[in-house]
């Protein structure tokens, strides 16, 4: 059975209402519909130390989170937009994934090869394409495979206060994007599980 691990990079701790969590929940439910077991964490609830190593020492919560990413077939990275950028929590996650470059084996195989990554983004102004591009570039650099049509995002009208969590219904276009994202991620993950990337050295 395929598995997915979602990492919510909201700035809101615990069970505080979160637009990012709402979208992540919808993506994970869609993946479940394609036979994928799912789990998630809020990154801000854990003491992820700054740095670029797999383990930054005493009290660092990243090694346990990284283990869950490594164990999953699909990594779902969800972030809000702040000032037109991926939030600081998402950027720290990317920085910690930099350690992958030191874990490439003698055959040129990254530990992330064969794993799919998808991104979900929410904000109350424009910036979703920029944020998605930043995250996917970094995730591809560290070895994740990106499926086609794999972005789900919502941004509200500029200078207004309505957040995604305030919507009574999911917009039709977004609902379709979520289904496409989940379907393609599950399909690609199954293919990569059956036929992994070959050695390059």
Automatic annotation (TrEMBL):
Cross-referenced InterPro entries: Flavoprotein-like_sf (IPR029039), FMN_Rdtase-like_dom (IPR005025)
Gene3D superfamilies from the UniProt entry: 3.40.50.360
Alphabetic keyword roster: Flavoprotein, FMN
Pfam families: FMN_red
Annotated NADPH-dependent FMN reductase-like domain residues: 16-149
SUPFAM superfamilies in UniProt: Flavoproteins
GO terms for MF: oxidoreductase activity
Identification of the protein by name: NADPH-dependent FMN reductase
Organism expressing this protein natively: Frateuria terrea
């Amino acid at each position: 059975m395929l598995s997915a691990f979602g990492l919510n990079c909201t700035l809101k701790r615990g069970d505080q209402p979160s637009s990012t969590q709402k979208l992540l929940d919808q993506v994970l439910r869609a993946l479940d519909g394609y036979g994928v077991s799912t789990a998630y964490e809020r990154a801000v609830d854990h003491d992820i130390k700054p740095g670029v190593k797999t383990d930054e020492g005493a009290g660092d919560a990243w090694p346990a989170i990284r283990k869950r990413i490594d164990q999953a077939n699909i990594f779902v990275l969800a972030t809000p937009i702040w000032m037109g950028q991926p939030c600081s929590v998402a950027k720290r996650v990317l920085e910690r994934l930099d350690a992958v470059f030191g874990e490439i084996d003698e055959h040129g195989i990254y530990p992330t090869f064969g794993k799919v990554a998808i991104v979900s983004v929410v904000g109350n102004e424009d910036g979703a394409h920029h944020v998605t591009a930043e995250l996917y570039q970094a995730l591809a650099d560290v070895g994740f495979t990106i499926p086609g049509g794999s972005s789900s995002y919502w941004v509200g009208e500029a200078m207004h206060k309505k957040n995604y969590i305030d919507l009574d219904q999911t917009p039709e276009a977004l609902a379709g994007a979520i289904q496409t994202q989940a379907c393609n991620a599950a399909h690609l993950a199954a293919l990569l599980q059956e036929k992994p990337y070959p050695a390059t050295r």
